[in-house]
């Protein structure tokens, strides 16, 4: 795992997108296609804005997977991550993706997990774009996260810290409106990606960053598992890195 600190969130976004785009192009040169995982949420705004403008990237040979989605939330809801991915990623690309496998939050959960699991198992993932939550979650794997399951997708319970983050970022008008469950890619599935590009801006993530990057690897701080990945890079700004002993 590497840690890179930028001065601002916009510089962080540019740096993370540049690495991610180069890894995608390398996969295209190596094998003719690429498979990626795309995260959502406020932490990905700047990275995605840069990624969709990445030069010389043949998106028609790229297959993307959705990282997580609220259980039971329609795509028309402003907080839907399917809507987010369409608005901030897929619709802004200069060329259409080969495929974007959305998580259907309104589908029967077990069947949806099985459907997506069969798709993602077909070939390795080249690049996973992820973030870290205020509670240290990776995707929607809130603490204590399941580090053992080999199932690619899970139904997970969202803890109060996670739900308050979603409300605080403006996705929901009140805590009662935030769903209590979601469908999420599992920890071990994320770790199977050849490269992980993790974008974590903002002061409100500083404690989680310190816990996950300088503390022990533990399900209590789910993103601490990134310490074990040889090709993971965590991109921080000065605010999110402010509590690190050695940024």
Give an overview in words.
By secondary structure, this protein is an alpha/beta fold. Helix content is 30%, strand content 19%. The chain has helices at residues 9-31, 45-51, 81-88, 109-120, 160-168, 187-191, 206-214; strands spanning 2-6, 34-38, 62-66, 68-70, 99-101, 127-130, 153-157, 181-185, 195-200, 232-237. The strands form two sheets. Strands 1-10-9-6-2-3-5 form a seven-stranded parallel β-sheet, sandwiched between helices. A three-stranded antiparallel β-sheet has the order 4-8-7. Strand 9 (195-200), helix 7 and strand 10 form a beta-alpha-beta unit. Helix 1 packs across helix 2 (45-51). The relative contact order is 0.19.
Strand and helix map with partners:
Blueprint: E1 2-6, H1 9-31, E2 34-38, H2 45-51, E3 62-66, E4 68-70, H3 81-88, E5 99-101, H4 109-120, E6 127-130, E7 153-157, H5 160-168, E8 181-185, H6 187-191, E9 195-200, H7 206-214, E10 232-237
Parallel strand pairs: 1-10, 2-3, 2-6, 3-5, 6-9, 9-10
Antiparallel strand pairs: 4-8, 7-8
Helix pairs in contact: 1-2
């Amino acid at each position: 795992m590497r840690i890179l600190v930028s001065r601002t969130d916009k510089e962080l976004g540019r740096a993370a997108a540049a690495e991610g785009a180069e890894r995608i192009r390398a996969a295209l040169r190596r094998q003719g296609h690429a498979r990626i995982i795309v995260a959502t949420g406020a932490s990905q705004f700047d990275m995605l804005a840069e990624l969709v403008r990445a030069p010389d990237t043949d998106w028609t040979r790229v297959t993307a997977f959705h990282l997580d989605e609220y259980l039971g939330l329609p795509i028309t809801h402003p907080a839907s991550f399917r809507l987010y991915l369409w608005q901030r990623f897929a619709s802004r690309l200069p060329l259409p993706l080969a495929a974007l496998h959305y998580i259907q939050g309104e589908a029967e959960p077990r069947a949806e997990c099985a459907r997506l699991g069969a798709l993602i198992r077909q070939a390795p993932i080249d690049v996973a774009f992820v973030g870290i939550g205020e509670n240290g979650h990776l995707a929607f794997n809130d603490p204590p996260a399941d580090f053992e399951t080999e199932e690619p997708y899970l139904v997970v319970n969202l803890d109060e810290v996670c739900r308050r983050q979603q409300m605080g970022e403006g996705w929901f008008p009140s805590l009662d409106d935030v769903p209590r469950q979601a469908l999420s890619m599992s920890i071990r599935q994320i770790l199977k990606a050849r490269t992980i590009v993790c974008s974590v801006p903002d002061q409100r993530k500083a404690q989680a960053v310190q816990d996950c990057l300088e503390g022990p690897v533990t399900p209590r701080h789910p993103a601490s598992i990134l310490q074990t990945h040889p090709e993971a890079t965590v991109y921080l700004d000065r605010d999110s890195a402010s509590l690190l002993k050695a940024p």
